[in-house]
Structures are given as C-alpha cells and as structure tokens.
Recover the amino acids of this structure.
C-alpha cells in the first residue's frame, strides 16, 4: 500500500468507521476479556494477543489491506455470523 493510501486508511477511514460502528451497532457485552480461538479471519491473521491473552472489548475490528481489487480502497465482512439470529459470534 502506498503512503497516501496508508495515511488515508489510518487517519480518516478507520476513525470514521469506528465512530459509525459505535453509534449504529449494538453488541451484547462480553464478561471479562474477549478471546479468539481461530488463528485467522478469512485471509487475515489474528495476532496471538487476541488468542492467548484476550482484550477488554465487546467487539474487535480487524483491518487488512488488500490491493488485489482495482479501485477499491477498503472492504469488510464479519468473520462469523450466526445464521439463525444474524448475530456476530465470538471465536
């Protein structure tokens, strides 16, 4: 990723995304630390911190740059969604 895109993603896109998600999505609070058992989400690796130690959060947003799709700056999708309720599942 070139420097201009990296600056855009880190200084504009991600902060705006966090604000949007914080105001539009309601999550079921996690009791204690949120941990993940999977080593990856699609093709993005999940750092061992999230698997071994966990984090105090109700939702974690993983961001991965993918330059293989022309004219696309960013895209996203959930790792696991319950097919019955439509809720995001923890790992």
């Amino acid at each position: 990723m070139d420097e201009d895109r990296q600056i855009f993603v880190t200084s504009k896109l991600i902060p705006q995304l966090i604000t949007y998600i914080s105001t539009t999505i309601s999550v079921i609070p996690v009791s204690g630390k949120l941990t993940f058992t999977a080593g990856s989400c699609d093709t993005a690796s999940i750092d061992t911190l999230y698997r071994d130690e966990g984090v105090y959060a109700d939702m974690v947003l993983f961001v991965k740059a993918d330059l293989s799709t022309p004219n696309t700056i960013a895209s996203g999708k959930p790792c696991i969604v319950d097919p019955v309720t439509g809720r995001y599942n923890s790992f």
Notes: The radius of gyration is 14 Å.
